[in-house]
């Protein structure tokens, strides 16, 4: 466990000291403080083994061929499209929110800013990058002060976050998010086949992976759309930060997950039985492989 001064400075207190009035603060993670923040994560993960995750990346540059609507694509076709985009592009930001239990409020939030992407040099979707800039991402600061992908991969592997069956992951429409993290952890392009990719998701992130977009299928048709729309329908407010920033969206994802779980998955074991290990859009193959 970190020293009390260190923990207090970072906004962390043991779970028994977290009160209802605890105000969540997002920790910005750059190259000059990444080692310190991951020391904190390693100390905290035992107390807060539920992790909500979101990423930001420079849009998509490859689209379905023959004007095929994504809803009409097979899981294998969707994965091929994801792979084409993720292999060609750079991750910009990773948001992580830690909580003590499936019903607990968020305790810690980290926004990890990466350095590799340069819009002057690398392919991207201009509208997507413009939206990120308008939402407060300083891409010049990312290039100057950001964490390298190689350093982040090493820190994740030693953090207790990945390859740890005691950690559960919560996401929203997360096939791209996990694809970017798998690519980061592997240090190379994604595997060719969907089954190989899903195997890696299970190896790195374990059996308890929950995609809120998939969970919505079991909510009696009451929930539709993206994260903002779903949160608004559930009267879940954004607790910290701004939309289209990874840590803020990971916090909102966590609070939305908590609300859905309390409303639609009250029966013991129903969430795990219906939703564990299934990524939205890759459900058919995922259910055969992971569950």
Automatic annotation (TrEMBL):
Its EC number is 3.1.13.4. One of its GO terms (molecular function) is metal ion binding. It catalyses: Exonucleolytic cleavage of poly(A) to 5'-AMP. The keyword Transmembrane helix does not apply. It is an enzyme of class 3 (hydrolase). It is found in: Cytoplasm; Nucleus. Keywords: Cytoplasm, Exonuclease, Hydrolase, Metal-binding, Nuclease, Nucleus, RNA-binding, Transcription, Transcription regulation. GO terms for cellular component: CCR4-NOT complex; cytoplasm; nucleus. Its cofactor is a divalent metal cation. Ubiquitous transcription factor required for a diverse set of processes. It is a component of the CCR4 complex involved in the control of gene expression. Belongs to the CAF1 family. Component of the CCR4-NOT complex, at least composed of CRR4 and CAF1 proteins. This is poly(A)-specific ribonuclease.
């Amino acid at each position: 466990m970190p020293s009390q001064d260190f923990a207090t400075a970072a906004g962390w207190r043991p779970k028994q000291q977290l009160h209802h009035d605890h105000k969540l603060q997002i920790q910005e993670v750059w190259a000059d403080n990444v080692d310190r923040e991951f020391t904190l994560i390693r100390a905290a993960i035992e107390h807060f083994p539920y992790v909500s995750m979101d990423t930001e990346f420079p849009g998509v540059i490859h689209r379905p061929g023959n004007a095929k609507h994504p809803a009409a694509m097979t899981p294998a076709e969707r994965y091929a499209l994801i792979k084409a985009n993720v292999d060609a592009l750079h991750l910009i930001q990773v948001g992580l929110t830690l909580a003590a239990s499936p019903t607990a409020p968020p305790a810690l939030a980290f926004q990890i800013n990466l350095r590799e992407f340069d819009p002057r040099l690398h392919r991207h979707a201009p509208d997507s990058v413009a939206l990120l800039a308008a939402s407060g991402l300083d891409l010049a600061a990312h290039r100057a002060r950001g964490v390298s992908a190689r350093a982040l991969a090493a820190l994740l592997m030693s953090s207790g976050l990945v390859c740890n069956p005691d950690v559960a992951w919560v996401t929203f429409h997360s096939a791209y998010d996990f694809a970017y993290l798998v690519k980061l952890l592997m240090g190379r392009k994604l595997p060719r086949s969907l089954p190989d990719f899903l195997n890696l998701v299970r190896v790195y992130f374990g059996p308890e992976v929950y995609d809120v977009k998939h969970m919505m299928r079991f909510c009696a048709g009451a929930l539709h759309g993206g994260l903002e729309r779903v949160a608004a329908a559930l009267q879940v407010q954004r607790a910290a930060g701004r939309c289209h920033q990874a840590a803020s969206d990971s916090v909102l994802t966590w609070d939305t997950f908590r609300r859905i779980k309390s409303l639609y998955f009250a029966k013991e074991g129903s969430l795990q039985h219906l939703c564990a290990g299934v990524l939205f859009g890759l459900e058919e193959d995922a259910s055969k492989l992971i569950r």
